[in-house]
Design goal:
With 301 residues, the chain is α/β, with parallel strands linked by helices. The chain contains 11 helices and 8 strands. It has helices at residues 5-11, 36-40, 49-57, 74-86, 107-116, 118-127, 149-164, 183-193, 213-220, 243-252, 275-296; strands at residues 27-31, 61-65, 90-95, 131-134, 170-174, 198-203, 224-229, 258-261. The chain has an 8-stranded parallel barrel, surrounded by 5 helices.
Length: 301
Amino acid sequence: MSATRRQFLSTSMGAAAAAALPPGKDDISLANWSIVQSFRAGKWKLLDMPRILRDVLKINGLEYVNTFFENPTIEYLRKLKRNCEDYGMTSVLVMVDDEGNTASLDKAERMQAAVAHRKWIDVAHYLGCHAIRCNLRGGPKEWQQDKDVAKRGAEVFRDILEYAKGSGLNVLIENHGGASSDPDVLLELMRLVNHPKFGMLVDTGNWNPGVDRYEATRKLIRYGKGMSVKGTWGPNKRADFDMEKLLQVCIDGGYHGWWGIEVGWRRPEGVQATPDEIWENEIKSVLAAKTVVERVVLKKA
């Protein structure tokens, strides 16, 4: 980065609050991962997203993925922020991947992961996001026998929260596979961190096999400061859960805020597709999901 965190905070103080919806209000955002295939096919760049969300998808909020930032220098971020302003787009959060194992058995490794997340605190704050999303990764493969995974993760997330102090940003953990998709581990992590700016990005699809996803969502939604909505509709239809029922669980649990669509397009095995065909199918999937969230959450006919 070409500016220090202190410079970021002094030049954009209060920006993080911009992504927070008024209490009791709901709106729809797009998790950029929904259209990862067209990104990899070269169909768009991150600087294009504010225009695409406004003109193509009619969605008001953008959830970034850190690996989609081509070159997050201050000048690049200024352009991205200006594009969001020009198209009336709210920057919601940054999903942080590939920045180390936050629950590593090796303390030096996991604390290095904490340091690696700091630049994304700076970026998220500058863009006006309300949060970064982190992962709980590391430790033995047999995570079911790992009694200290939540304890190690709590050490790292407290360090990240300390760095974020004064920015207004939330630090969120997503149920994102392995130990992090075990509701008991997550409940213990919430208890150990015990910080008003720490919470969950509740992903309705990412629960371990055998977990009752409705009950797990019900238990964790009280910590929800973000939401990833997976789909059971259209060509991506999954028979193993009822998305509308899960949305209602979240509503009944008192969740309000951004409902981030993260649906993607499942390309049939062996089927080749051009970048334009990939893009067309991803857009169809996002719009189908948007229709469901509008009906169930926003109560639009």
